[in-house]
Amino acid sequence: MPRLPMGDIGPCVVIWDYEGTTPICLGPYLGTVSLRMTDSVSDVQEEGYGDAPVDAVFAGTVLELDIPMARNDLNTLQHTIGYVGMGALSGSGFRLHLYNMAGCSMYENAKQIIIAPICNNVPDSDPNSWILLYKCHPYRDFELTFDRSGQRVHMVKFKVFPNQDSGYCGDYGTWGLESGAMGITGVC
To answer: Any bridge partners for residue 38, and if so which?
Structure first.
């Protein structure tokens, strides 16, 4: 039986805005980069069967990406926890202001992400081993700790939305890309 081209164990690189004007490597990170998919299911019940469902209906799928970023610089944080209205750099790029967010659409500013496995500190150049997520937007959910032995990590989370563009309606992305896809050399 063939294995997944991304392998069974190992770190990865995450590239935000993959096909955009300013692709950025999100890292370094410390801990597990986690891509999580959860199907929501609604049970169909009949009184005669009590609490046991007689059927179930898919009620949507939620996909999220978590990246525990470590040893950050303000430019990278501006593109994640300060992205599009969530914050801004000031003072010649020496201060990152974080803003309250309410009532703003995330989908309209969502961008592509590539996840590529790493071997010997080099991203795999074969696009067949990459994961492409079409519509991703960061949101903040971190807790900074201050003690004598713990390293500070900004947990950057991404909502992954089903693509609403023509020809891709409902797609989240692909496991593996066609050969000849845009390279990632020089980004990470």
So the answer is: 62
